[in-house]
Amino acid sequence: MGFLLRIMLATAFVNLAPAVAQAKKAVASPALQKEFDGFIEKFRAALSTNDSAAVAGMTRLPFMNDSAIRDAAQFRAKTYPTSFTAKNRACIQRGKAVYDRDPENNDNYFVFCGELIFVFTKTPAGFLFTEVGAND
């Protein structure tokens, strides 16, 4: 096979690899899905009663590795009022959670609410609310 043909084939495979990787969607195992369903049911129940203490108890602290939000009291004072507005609480309660694995092989579920993404991650302690970020 000619040198030029080999280079063209190699280039085609390199360009095709990301498309193939993206086409393969991660799927949660039935056991993992069941565990998340139990968690999100409790999380949504806490949101429906606007129970910031219960939400803080289901959150990995320090929140987003921010030393200014290292305990439940700080989470309730600084994060809960701005991230869990009535509109966002309603969105999380009715929103469909989307599963994916991150590059570090963590199991994550995402709920998209307008400009925000709420992230729930499987930890050694079970699922926890781990991040809120921009929906770009």
Protein architecture, described:
- The longest helix is centred in the first third of the chain and has 21 residues.
- Helix 2 packs antiparallel against helix 5.
- The chain has five helices and four strands; from the N terminus they run αααααββββ.
- A four-stranded antiparallel sheet has the order 1-2-3-4.
- With 136 residues, it is an alpha+beta fold.
- The protein is globular.
Q: Brief description of this entry?
A:
This protein has 136 residues and is α+β, with helices and mostly antiparallel strands.
Task: Classify the secondary structure makeup into a structural class.
Answer: alpha+beta
| SSE sequence, one letter per element | HHHHHEEEE
How many DSSP H or I helices?
Answer: 5
Assembly of the depicted chains: single chain
Question: What summary fits the major beta sheet?
Answer: 4 strands, antiparallel
Strand percentage lies at 15-25%
Taking all Cα atoms into account, the compactness measure Rg is 20 Å
Give the low-pLDDT segments.
1-14, 16-21
As a percent range, the share of helical residues equals 40-55%
Spatial arrangement of strands, main beta sheet: 1-2-3-4
Shape: globular
Can you give keywords for this protein?
single chain; 136 residues; alpha+beta; disordered N terminus
List the helices and strands and how they pair.
Elements: H1 3-23, H2 30-48, H3 52-57, H4 72-83, H5 86-94, E1 98-101, E2 107-113, E3 116-123, E4 126-134
Antiparallel strand pairs: 1-2, 2-3, 3-4
